[in-house]
Every structure is written in structure tokens, then in C-alpha cells.
Amino acid sequence: MIINHLGRPAARRRRPTAAAALLVAALAGVGGAAHADVSGSERAAGFGAATNATTTAACTGTPGGFASVNALGQNGTTGGAGGPVVTVNTAAALKDYVGRPGPYIIQVSGRIQVSGMLTVVANKSILGVGTTAEITGGGLQLGSTTRPGNNVIIRNIRFSGAEDDSISVTNKAHHVWIDHNDLSDGYDGLLDIKRESDFVTVSWNHFHDHSKSALLGHSDSYTADIGKLRVTYHHNFFDGTDQRHPRVRFAEPVHVLNNYYRNNALYGIASTENAGLLVEGNYFQNVAHPIYVGYDKSGPGRVVERNNLYVGSGTPQTAGTVVEPRTYYSYTVDDPATVPAKVSAGVGVGKIGC
């Protein structure tokens, strides 16, 4: 049954979130590559696991999901591999290096106060050092209309208090991996992916203390997104955030795998404007509206849901059929009953040995 939600999204709200209990566990790796078990590099990167077994100061590893796909002239996502390693601790230095041509591995040290959106151009790895790396006051925009933001990795950084978006993947950026970050308390979206961007993996991130979490698709009128916006969201914690986990327009397929949803006041996921989402292996806790088909003034999308758990939550809406992500990559699904402990223990900064 297709039901459009007619309520307006709530304004941004700042409110405390209870700290998640971190459970000490050995987390088994899952995921895949080319119709087989995942490779060691994917397992180290956290496609189904949180581990620092093979990481170094440069956060080595490769993603699973759509960022791993060989497409558009890019074989997976390598970021700044092969380029100089630099460490930055000021806004000026960060702005300089993310905007330079060529590959760079940029290590963010400590708390950096920025203003507005810093434009990140192609072939960059932006990696937080230790547990205290933070970008506050502003955010990162991947690419401009004249300078592509392709092949970018962002890991192990806390984002807070952004004047606009915390991270914006836009302007046809492709092959992007956003992994093990902490995002909260911005002005607009915490993580928006839009304007013909493609082949993105969002993994092991902690979203909290915010309303609008993860937009996918610019607007109802931006039909250029049709055939683009292929994104994998896996093992993220949407912790008390209100909405957009994600809110999707036009994209297909979008793979929402093994995420933990808790106390999401407006809704969990919304598929609109003929988007196609596969939602599987997730755990919804105290979410009255876990999945919407259509939302606000946006027309309905399509959703296939399987093997999810709904605890103290409402009934999900589903509709239609969706292209299988296995058309692009292989993977395995964690038992959804293990998701709250595994995701709570593995998300956010300080988990991958940067």
C-alpha cells in the first residue's frame, strides 16, 4: 500500500542523546567481492566488520559496496593513494590541501574551526588522526561544477556545528567512501549526496543530535539524478536523529544494509520519486514509521524490504521491485539481531587505527 506522509519535516533540534553502551566484541567480517567471500582488504575496511587489524597511520583499506565497483573509468575508491602524506591542524592548511590537484593523503590533527564549505577535489584521502580529529563550524563539499570531487575517502573525523551541510557529495562526484565518522548538530544535512553523484559507500558512521541526517537526491525537479546516485549505506547508527536515513529521490539501486535505527521521531527511510531501495538486515528500535513510500509532496518510490527487525516500531511500507545490488557486487548480511551490539561497538571515530 502506498501512503504519502503529509506532515512537514520538523525544524532542526538540538537535544542530548544518551551514550550508547559500547560492547567489547570480536566482530566477524562479512561482505563480498565478485560473487565470493570478501577479500581481506574489504574485511579490514569494515564491510561487515569493525577492525584495525591491518590499518596503519594512513588508514589503509578499501571499501565494500558501491564505492568498490569498477565503473566510470575508476576501479574502486583509492583516494589519495600514492600521493604525499601531509598533516594539517589549521583551516588554512586544510583548505589548501583538499583543493590541490593530484593525490594527497591529508591527516587531520586535532580540532579545526572552518567557515562555510571547503571544496575537495579528486584523489584525496582525508583521515582523522587518533580520536580527537574534528572539523567544526563548516563542512566538506566534494567537487564543484568545474573541479570534480571523484575518488575521495573521508574517515575517522568528527563533524559538528556546520553552518550548512557537514559533508556534501555533489556535482557528479563518483567513487566516494565515507567511513567511521561522527556527525552531529549541523544546520542543514549531516550527509547529502546529490546532483548526479554515483558509486558511494557510507559505512560505520554515527549520526546523532540532529534532525536531517542523510539526503540522497537534490530535489523533485532534478531529474538528471535518474540513473545515478547508486549508494550503499551499511552499519551506520542513526541515533535519535529525526529523519532522512536516507530520504531518496530517483536513485536505483540504493542498498540499506545492517544499519541500526533508534528513536527516530519522524521516520527511518523514505523512498520517493520512483527511487528503488533494497532495505535488508536492519534493526529498527522505537521507530513509529520505519519506511515510507512517498513523503511530503514527493511522489512514491519503490522499496523491497527483507530480513529486518522492527522492535517497538511500526509497519514498513513497501512497493514494487528493485534492481538487486548483487548485480554490482556481492555481500553477506549480518543477522539483524546482532546489529545493535555490533554497530554500537564499531561506529564512529577511534576504531580503525588512523
Key descriptive features of the protein:
single chain, 354 residues, mainly beta, Pectate Lyase C-like, 15-stranded parallel β-sheet, globular
Shape field:
globular
Q: Which superfamily, in CATH terms, is the homologous superfamily of one domain?
A: Single-stranded right-handed beta-helix, Pectin lyase-like
Q: What is the residue-mean pLDDT, rounded to a whole number?
A: 87
Number of strands: 27
CATH architecture of one domain: 3 Solenoid
The SS-based structural class is: mainly beta
Rg value: 18 Å
CATH class of one domain: Mainly Beta
CATH fold topology of one domain:
Pectate Lyase C-like
Low-confidence stretches: 1-57
Order of helices and strands: HEEEHEEEEEEEEEEEEEEEEEEEEEEEEH
- How does the major sheet shape up? 15 strands, parallel
Estimated share of beta-strand residues:
25-35%
Total helices: the number is 3
Cα end-to-end separation? 46 Å
Subcellular location: Secreted
Protein name: Pectate lyase
Keywords: Carbohydrate metabolism, Lyase, Polysaccharide degradation, Secreted, Signal
GO molecular function, one term: lyase activity
